Amino acid sequence: MKTSCWIKYCSLTAFVAALAFFVYLVDASKALSYLSKDPLACINCHVMNPQYATWQHSSHKNVASCVDCHLPTDSMVDKYLAKARDGWNHSVAFTLNTYGQNIQISDDGAKRVQANCIACHAGLTETIRSNQDRYHDFSGAPAADRKCWECHREVPHGRVRSLSSTPDNLGVREL
Amino acid sequence: MNKYGFLMIGSAVALAGMGLMANSINGKQVEREVLTTLPVVKADGVESRNDEWARYYPRQYDSWKQTKKNDKIKDMLEEKPQLAILWAGYGFAKDYNAPRGHFYALQSNINTLRTGAPVGPVDGPMPTACWTCKSPDVVRVMEEQGENEYFTGKWARLGEEIVNPIGCADCHDSSTGDLTLTRPYLERALEASGTNLDEITHQEMRSLVCAQCHSEYYFKNTEYTDKEGTEQVAKVVTFPWSEGLGAEDMERYYNNYGFKDWTHKISKAPMLKAQHPGYEIYKTGIHAQRGVSCADCHMPYKQEGSVKFSDHHIASPLENVENTCLTCHRETEEEFKQLVKTKLDRKEQLMEITMDNLAKAHLTAGKAWESGATEEQMAGVLESIRSGQWIWDYSIASHGSFFHAPEETLRLLGVANEKAQQARLELAGILATLGVTDYQIPDFSTKEKAQKLAGVNLEKLVDEKNEFRELLLKEWSEKAVEAGRLNPATREGMSDKTSYNQ
């Protein structure tokens, strides 16, 4: 009986402590900011500083923030599922330091960006998309596999992308 | 027993896991702070020597030095001689050149005939306020002496203190590297115009650091008591923004307070001089409305090897169209240059008409006074001239107003021309009542003729200035080098052109 009470109190205390620690962790990691579309959330992880800095100086600064290009825009469910997928992958890589100096977008991510380029610039890309079928030559990979940024190399993050490519940038200090 | 045991074990494992995670997060946070903390150029006070910043920001410094190439003197009084008539009785009638690169801001201030030829610290026509937008040494002196103290006395008082041209410490905090407002009068003006200083964003700051100097201002007489208990009057640079940032708003501000910059030598009108309202004009244009800052076009992001940084070679975006206009616009470089040329040509045409009419109004008013006109007869005319010239000056005094806000610029020129014409019509009536029916406006088609009409003795002014350059100016430089305020190596290869010595 006496032993049982002791274990009971200790376990409850440990549980409450774990809950409190969890709340602290949510705050320290700014986890809730990832539910928003604020681009500042993306530089909670400083490895995104060069991407943020180059976006800030680009033509997309005033018209499209990170989520407008990098997440699906057709449905809320798809958007948050993609957020969850990316969030998990990014958290693991960041915590375990498994990211490289030159971070490359994943295939999944690239598909989403391509879809958003086409959706936002539908008028411009109409001719390209309608010509797509005419280029089909039945002998290999479809011509449509190319991405917008294979020609538009500077948009919006530039061609030089590494963790050390934007020193002295003041804009990433808004946090 | 079992369920509490499992709960305890589970909580303990969770705590351990979260402990590791918290440790990782805090480690990353430290990493982020290190990455985003810029080097301390000077822990206390202001580092006004630009070459000292080069230790930490070599690329920015090297690009800033490119402004050294823009050394061409373009004498605007030669190109637009009617300017000498418009500014008769004021310094600008003596000497007025097109602006050059930041590197030469200080040299131009010292060499211009407007600052005169003082022989000592209490001599000369201009107050210390004339240094205000020319040097980071101004920031240092304000901090060392106090703001009102800085704004007290003659221009020559600070000649040996103000020796480094516009540079790093004008916009950046010496200890943090942050963009910062180093001129307190801009903060006061923003507050007067209804801005909350705490809500200024980084993007807005990228324009406001420019607005410290590229704005309309006047010298406000400000009484204060100095450290020795003596009553003093400072001439403090002040922005007339409390009624709004438009030309008519500022005119109302000046009228409410009975202010004039000078009395016109020919027409006797109480005149206002618009001092480059670049920021105010830009705010009415499409780019400001779209959230584009000054630095977006004038300091584009530049790639040098594997590093990107803001290009501190501040110049016209037309010199670097690919990295400025074409970042956002899809047209070609040729199209942009043609577009800008069209806007410029339209402004030039209307500006010439307006300036001619204003100059003729001044000369005709001078004739009216000579012919016996009374104060009562002339009151309305002088008001039209003052207002018309203010509106004209406001529209063209700043860099590239025809592009920053082409609609506003043309509107203002139209209004100014209307007022000038109105004044001339009234003057024709006044002359008629005085029996003058055949007044021929004298020729002011060359600088020499115009300055003669304006009563400017150019040769005498030039001789005095050259003597000053040989004597007091050299003394200033020597003292500054001795005191360690100026590194003479920073002036190597610097040209020394003026409108009167080339």
Task: Give an account of the 3D structure.
The complex is a heterodimer of chains A (175) and B (502). Chain A starts with a helix and ends in a 43-residue tail after the last helix. Chain A is elongated and about 85 Å long. Chain A has 175 residues and is mostly helical. Chain A has six helices and no strands. In chain A, 17% of the residues are buried. In chain A, helix 5 (107-120) crosses helix 6. Chain B is mainly α and 502 residues long. Chain B has 23 helices and six strands. Chain B has helices at residues 2-36, 50-53, 58-65, 76-79, 82-86, 105-111, 137-145, 147-150, 168-171, 184-192, 202-211, 247-256, 278-283, 286-289, 294-298, 325-328, 333-370, 375-396, 401-404, 406-433, 447-453, 458-470, 472-482, and strands spanning 218-225, 231-238, 262-263, 270-271, 301-304, 307-310. In chain B, the strands form three sheets. Chain B has a two-stranded antiparallel sheet. In chain B, strands 3-4 form a two-stranded antiparallel ribbon.
Q: Which short descriptors sum up this protein?
A:
heterodimer; A: 175 residues; mainly alpha; 6 helices; 0% strand; elongated; B: 502 residues; two-stranded antiparallel ribbon; two-stranded antiparallel sheet; 6 strands
Rg of chain B, alpha carbons: 27 Å
N-to-C SSE string of chain B, H for helix and E for strand: HHHHHHHHHHHEEHEEHHHEEHHHHHHHH
Note the total helix count of chain A: 6
| Coarse structural class of chain A | mainly alpha
- Helix-strand sequence of chain A: HHHHHH
Work out the strand percent of chain B.
5-15%
CA-based shape of chain B: globular
Q: For the largest interface in this structure, which chains are involved and how many residues does each contribute?
A: A-B, 45 and 45 residues
**Main sheet characteristics of chain B:** 2 strands, antiparallel
Mean pLDDT of chain A: 88
Number of helices of chain B: 23
